[in-house]
């Protein structure tokens, strides 16, 4: 049934997130890692200014922010607020945990440096 499938997806999502968090605890926040990761040709994080249309709605909170973060072009559209709140991290199924950790790192690096 679709309810069972939905529940399974939810469990997978929670497992994925805790894995990412565990990985991040172990990994040092380093900009060069993110830089190397972003140079991989099929991955890109792009910030686009406000545009009209369904393509400019955050996939998480459904708001239409002034600028959006696009990961892998239009596949993952998030506003910075949702990215920063770690509300959701959607990535390709075949991503390695290292890749996930680096996405995560990229969004939190600046914040961590300011606190010191």
Can you describe this structure?
By secondary structure, the chain is an alpha+beta fold. It has one domain (2-115). The protein is built from four helices and three strands, in the order ααβββαα. It has helices spanning 2-26, 31-39, 80-84, 97-115, and strands at 45-49, 67-71, 76-79. The chain has a three-stranded antiparallel β-sheet. Mean pLDDT is 56; it is low at 24-45, 86-94 and 106-114. InterPro entries: KDM6_GATAL_sf.
Structural class: alpha+beta
Helix content: 40-55%
Rg, Cα atoms, Å: 15 Å
Summed up, the domain count is 1
Question: Can you lay out the helices and strands and say which pair or pack?
Answer:
Layout: H1 2-26, H2 31-39, E1 45-49, E2 67-71, E3 76-79, H3 80-84, H4 97-115
Antiparallel strand pairs: 1-2, 2-3
Helix pairs in contact: 1-4, 2-4
InterPro entries: KDM6_GATAL_sf
Give a brief rundown of this model:
The protein has helices at 2-26, 31-39, 80-84, 97-115, and strands at residues 45-49, 67-71, 76-79.
Feature tags:
116 residues; alpha+beta; disordered C terminus; single chain; elongated; 3-stranded antiparallel β-sheet
């Amino acid at each position: 049934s679709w309810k069972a499938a939905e529940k399974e997806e939810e469990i997978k999502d929670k497992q994925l997130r805790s894995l990412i968090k565990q990985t991040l605890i172990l990994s040092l926040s380093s900009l060069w890692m993110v830089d190397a990761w972003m140079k991989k040709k099929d991955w890109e994080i792009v910030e686009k200014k406000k545009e009209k249309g369904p393509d400019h709605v955050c996939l998480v909170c459904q708001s239409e922010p002034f600028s959006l973060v696009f990961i892998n072009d239009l596949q993952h559209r998030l506003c910075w607020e949702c990215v920063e709140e770690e509300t959701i991290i959607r990535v390709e199924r075949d991503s390695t945990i290292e890749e996930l950790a680096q996405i995560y790192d990229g969004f939190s690096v600046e914040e961590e440096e300011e606190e010191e």
